[in-house]
Write a structure and sequence with these properties.
There is one protein chain. This protein starts with a strand and ends in a 6-residue tail after the last helix. The protein is an alpha/beta fold. Helix 3 packs parallel to helix 6. The chain folds into two domains: 157 residues, P-loop containing nucleotide triphosphate hydrolases (Rossmann fold); 63 residues, no CATH class. The chain contains ten helices and twelve strands.
């Protein structure tokens, strides 16, 4: 499959502390790729690096072959990358409709925005009934739907999702995983950072296991799911 996003030999630091060690990974077009790891493995820093919030000391991030390392986040969004952040981070005092339209803040094509608005409501019919409701009053699962729909309003080629199932009830976990798979069917690639290995690998095409800033396992999701090493690698000791 053709590469969409690539991290190549990324080395990241917080002050004198190195967080990534020659980190390399690829998200192909029309694919779901998951990055697994425990706390302090470097997963969140990976997401920040993709979105331009953390600039690596060396290495690079490319999108469709274009070097986007350290570009301002709005420019990275324009390059085709949207995000569903950890804990969703909606505008709680704004309505669902207002939150969705915020996802198109970097766009100026009103006909296209209107078209995508109708598409996301078709994809998330539950939200159509709640357009006037303040986002902060919704359940965690409903808020996650708003966050995903908001990301799609940017008309991205890739959505980066940080712990998309965190804090959700089992019912909504299954629904969110179904929606992630549906998003991929629309032609949008998904890069998801997750702690729950079995859930992430159940819908992914390919997976990476990150441990103390290094990729220690990678492969097709089905192979990783069946690999007896996944448990020790995934739950292994991690450093701060």
């Amino acid at each position: 499959m053709k590469p969409l996003l690539q991290l190549e030999n990324v080395n990241s630091f917080y002050g004198p502390v190195q967080v990534h060690f020659d980190l390399s990974l690829t998200v192909p077009e029309n694919a779901i790729v998951c990055l697994l790891g425990g706390n302090a493995s470097g997963k969140s820093t990976t997401m920040k690096t993709i979105l331009g919030l953390q600039v690596p000391k060396s290495g690079k991030v490319t999108m469709e072959g274009r070097d986007i390392t350290g570009l301002p986040t709005p420019e990275i969004v324009r390059a085709g990358i949207a995000t569903v952040p950890e804990a969703r981070r909606l505008f709680g005092d704004m309505t669902v409709r207002e939150n969705l339209l915020m996802g198109a803040y970097a766009r100026s094509d009103k006909p296209g925005i209107d078209e995508d608005y109708e598409k996301v409501l078709d994809l998330f019919p539950r939200l159509k009934q709640r357009l006037g409701q303040k986002a902060g009053t919704m359940s965690g699962g409903e808020q996650q739907m708003v966050a995903m729909a908001r990301a799609l309003m940017a008309r991205p080629k890739l959505i980066c999702m940080d712990e998309p199932t965190m804090g959700l009830s089992p019912l909504f976990v299954d629904r969110v995983l179904e929606l992630i798979a549906t998003v991929r069917q629309t032609g949008v690639s998904v890069f998801m950072v997750e702690q729950n290995a079995s859930m992430a690998l159940s819908i992914a095409d390919y997976g990476y296991v990150l441990q103390t800033g290094r990729i220690v396992l990678e492969g097709p999701a089905g192979d990783l799911l069946a690999d007896p090493r996944i448990r020790s690698a995934y739950l292994g000791d991690t450093a701060a």
